[in-house]
């Protein structure tokens, strides 16, 4: 089984919706290295998973005539986190939450001290990164540009692992990069998502995902992270979705339509 899915959109669409943190599955071989018991692991998954974000992206794709492409992680971020740097550049490594987590959202032990992340990086992280790079390259070739929209969610109240959890927690946080997020892209998102009660930039989470081959080098790759506060569309933590899911999916579809 592949650890990710690529859902084709319109052949000439530049937009790629990226859903990295919405899945729950942990392969049995990976589960064996996690020290939490089943109940504690289930609780951790409810806190860390961006539940229903794949459904929000799918709703957005169905709502527009020129459908975006979608790249969806099929495995829990407790396997590997595909959006982390796999080396010393990753600031979350200080909290035990680099590309392979060794601590939980509540800073408890997830994997034992001295755990070797190498096999997980080779099995899951690098193939994912390569495939995402290929997906962006495909949009560049087909459309002459690529727009990566990173679809996330975050809890209403900060969790202990957050390094910048003392800032504003708006209904929608927009993560930007100085090289890859042009002002007009941010402005469009701010206008569309303002209807949910307001937005903020890079708070409580900052930046956006761009494959390393293009990061800081290819100006035709544009990117924006959308972090949706979970109380807008679901019961926390990890509960069912409500009508807000469709409303947010429709808003994301509006953004996609403007970018296509």
Task: Give a written overview of the molecule.
The mean pLDDT is 96. This protein has helices at 28-31, 38-48, 53-62, 118-143, 183-193, 244-259, and strands spanning 4-7, 15-19, 69-73, 146-154, 172-175, 199-201, 221-229. The protein is α/β, with parallel strands linked by helices and 260 residues long. The longest helix has 26 residues, at 118-143. The chain has 6 helices and 7 strands; from the N terminus they run ββαααβαββαββα. Strands 1-3-2-4-7-5-6 form a 7-stranded mixed β-sheet. Helix 5 runs antiparallel to helix 6 (244-259).
Topology pattern, helix = H, strand = E? EEHHHEHEEHEEH
Radius of gyration: 17 Å
Task: Tell me roughly what share of residues is in helical segments.
Answer: 25-40%
Spatial sequence of strands, sheet with the most strands: 1-3-2-4-7-5-6
Could you tell me how far the N terminus lies from the C terminus, measured between alpha carbons in angstroms? Answer: 31 Å
Strand percentage? 15-25%
Average pLDDT: 96
Structural category is alpha/beta
Helix count? 6
Coarse shape: globular
Which short descriptors sum up this protein?
6 helices, 7 strands, about 260 residues, globular, alpha/beta, single chain
